[in-house]
Amino acid sequence: MNDIMATTVKDDTLRWTSIVITCAAGNLREGVEEECKRLSSGGLLPPHDNLLVVEDPQPLSSGSADQEGEKGPTTGVGSGGATINAILVAAERLSAQLHHTTVTSEVVEGSRILVVHIGRHLPHTPGGSVLLRVSPSLSCVPPRACTTPPTLLQHNIWMATKMSSKTGAGVWVTSLDTFIPNTADLRPPLIEGCKGAVVVTQAASLQHAALHGVVVTDHQDNISRMEYRMPLEELNKIFRTGVGRVISGLVFLSTNLTERLLGLHTQPPLDRCTYYGTDSGIAPLQMSLYFDLLAPLCCGTSYDQYVSGQCGAMYSQAASYSSTSHQESQAARMQIWKHLHGLKATLHEIKGAEHHYLSSGSPYKHSIMPLLPAASNSFGDSENQDRKSDVVTVNGIIQGCVTPAADGKVIHIIDSWIGEGVSLTSTDSCVLSGVQLLSEVSLNMELVGECVWQMYPSEGTVNTVTCYGMSDDLTATHLDPTATIFNTTWSDFFTHTAIEKKDLWIDPDSKNQTVLTAKLFPTSLPVVKQMKIMVTLVRAVINDQFQVDWKSTLAEWRTSQRTSIQNLMNKCELMNLVKLQEAIYLETVKKYIMETADDMEGKSLLPLFNYIVTRPGGEAVEQILTLLHHLLDSPRPSTSRLLANVADLLGCLASGRGGLRSGPAANPQWRNALMLLKNGKQEAAVELMLEVCKKWMKSGNPEDLIRAARHYERASQIVIAQQVETAGQHVWWWRKEKVEGVGVVGMGVWVEAACPARLDLAGGWSDTPPICYEQGGAVLNVAIKVNNKKPITARVRVIPETKVVCVLGDWCGGETRLTWTHLDHLRDYDNPMAPGALIKAVLLYCRLVDPHSSDSLASQLRHRCGGGVEVEVCSHLPQGSGLGGSSLVAGTLVAAVAALLGYPLPSHTTLIHATLCIEQWLTTGGGWQDQVGGLVGGVKLGVSGRGTPVTVSSYRIPLSQQFIYTLSTHLLLLYTGKVRLARNLLQTVIRNWYARDPTITSCFAQLQQLGVKAAGAMLEEDIQMLGTCIDRYWELKKMVASGCEPTKVTVLMATLRTHCLGMALAGAGGGGYLYALKAGPQQLSHNLQLGDLTCDCVEVDEEGLVVQVDGQLLSRPTDENEILTKEQLVKLQIDVSLVNE
């Protein structure tokens, strides 16, 4: 047994104390452990404390091996014995963890234990039922645990977890012999005060029920008896509706029952059901869970019926229970009856889910095909039925060519790798499972359809290829007239191939001469040769035209060393299969990253990274890291996203142990690489970054991984800034000729500018780079005066001293005076924390001075202005107000500086794009909505489209004076008193955008659509709809920036709710101003509990930015802002819808 400790899943609502996986075949244990480690470490299982893999007690070795596998798999302790053994092992582990020295049955009282029986080795996939892939659309595995395509083991564990959601302590038992599909009608049982067992059943036709175990109940739904393969005549008498209740394979055992079962391990001969018997040197005893252990709980079962073995007679015969241990079985049943009788078994029926029993005897077409995906998936996606194709890959790689020969036929490629030199066609639908035909293989072949092709890994260098028909019952003896091989009768097979029985089975008297045990498959030949022989054989069976080809191949087939599917199953190295599947999966991840490198849409890589970093050895991480840097060798539209992907990979590798992702990113070891990137030398920059990254990774410290991630995010920000600066193509005022006869404003003359604040009413965040040019943005906002004045002011003048004097005013009336006399004083403009950084960035962007010039600051100022410059700026808004203060300061100051230098007043378009570029220089990375909202008066819709150069258009919304008055009187502005700092928040939002978090990407699409919808409400002057849009806007904001609604604000909003049509925090949220659209123009009631908060006066500002020189108002250029019409709005709605399809 082995213990694989808890997953990292944090949701403890359905946490298992122990999950116990039982292996009936000893050769599977190590492989099952490997698979369980993969699932557990990868976070693909429900939360659990202990994960144990337990080998069932095995029959004592006879000293001779079954070389040919003709006897079939050996029998062990059965499902009942395996359950007792699993409970014992779990109880021992829990007792040891509590430092008990003996097994204490009380440990089960507060424990939730899940027992999963692997059951018989299923031949329909090389790894058996443990590795069987199932359709995500049928699976119970949640999307977060579907990073790899779901397996039957995963599904059954999650199904049991779902069914246990209304139960507390106890034991749930499930088996991989069954598959219960996930349906909308699936309901867990409500178990209160259960003192026995709850058997989960499914409805099935009586013809189907006659082949399986059925449950018969009394009038109160207590289980009267359970029978296996009840005759159809009797079923018709009991189930008069024609629908029977079939045992699903899922059952709940109460703590009371579990303690009694645990006690059985000390009662001979039941000790032989546990490893105690094996370690005592005695043979195991077979017991059925349903027909031995649970039968005494059935109210219609008598003592004599039970002890004599009548209850489970049919099952004992079908399961090949040993007939030599009749007396021991009777003794065991006497003990079971003594300990368990008196407890009660009830049932819980699952509605709307088809019963699937998986066995060797059930043909592939009927048992496995219905469970396979209808569309390709390598990452567990819930397949879209519209994406059906003729080649379906499930964790598969196709580098060569695979095509069905006929329309409507499907080839499934499961856990397989088809190399470049391979071309396969098929005459009909077929399945390739576990087939490895790598690049060094050259093969051009037409496969026979309706067949399942599998490959078993070998201990040597050559793997073994097997094939059988989809309609074959692999366990039916060739003497059975209904039995088939390669979908045709055995008699036809022998006739058409000249193969004799002695070629297939050594023992002529064996009663187990089946497809499973037939030595059909060459093992010592190269894989290509094996496949050619098998294709020739199958063709000869179904088509006389190919018998000549087979006759020339028969001698080679006879002389080759051959084996059977049964023998391959018995010797299967499951661990090798797990590793092969992992190698394929890694290749699919790499292929996906390469194919979607320039796709700005696509799925999130974070789940893939979170899984990849859990793979042992680190080779997978190194391969992904190298691939991402290879993709970054040359500039591409997705460069910034790929750099963010590297940061995410490093963050996942740190596993939350290295601190916060946001932080400084200017380490000297990274400086040269970042500088190369800024200068456009991307290939050299990326090469250097990889070198430094690998060096930091070698330290093994999670802190170094997070610090490296920050530098990749910084690199991403540099590239984003370069993209945003393409907006500079719309900034041309300094290239214009100055107004004739007008130069720099005279010495000491003030150029003064004032600008309103803005309220974002809908669509904010969609204006943020890179979203604004990768998806596109649409924001509705309004310019406002606060307390009857424009709150943003800037003024500049020329002074005699050749220096720059900067005066920074604040909303409290204070001011900070800064003086800059050297160019070095201005060169920290890209550090937002540097005093006056925003002013420095504006002055440099306006070409007032050149920081890279060899001329001194004084010389440049004298040449440009005839003296020094004094700048005064003030935002009469609190810091972090959310009303766009800092961006509007930049835009307002640009307009003032342009006028100072004698240029015509820049257009709104120029100022909007200039401000966008300035904020990139400043490295604050803001969007464009602030400057659109404040610089342009009134209500307007700002829009940016996909692609570069980044282009922002603004549409003024024509409103009646009456509605403007209505809007002003209905607006409410409250300062919350909480300071909102958005820098780290912005980093987080961009990080989530590039991680392609589905919630975030959907949210941004809705924000863009809402911006246009709200503009429509404004255009219609529909204040009710506008309020609804504002409310929805706030809900979307909270999705983008989790935690942006402080508790104080939540309480405030609840107080205002009945008095307002809609409300939100301005800007990014988290603090600053709350604005609302009141239900009426009247003042709020004095009875409202607003604490110490007061309402600021707010009104719509139709004028926007104004600039004066020496008190004379400068005329604005012709308004280049389009007027939004209904026709224009419809076009915008269509454009936005197309972008977000």
From TrEMBL:
Stored Pfam families: Fucose_pyrophosphorylase (PF07959), GHMP_kinases_N (PF00288)
GO biological process, one term: GDP-L-fucose salvage
Superkingdom classification of source: Eukaryota
Gene3D superfamilies: 3.30.230.120
Region of interest (Disordered), ranges: 54-79
Single Gene Ontology MF annotation: ATP binding
Domain annotation GHMP kinase N-terminal: ranges: 859-938
Record has Signal as a keyword: no
Domain GDP-fucose pyrophosphorylase: 107-523
Alphabetic keyword roster: ATP-binding, Kinase, Nucleotide-binding, Transferase
PANTHER family named in the record: L-FUCOSE KINASE
Protein name per the record: Fucokinase
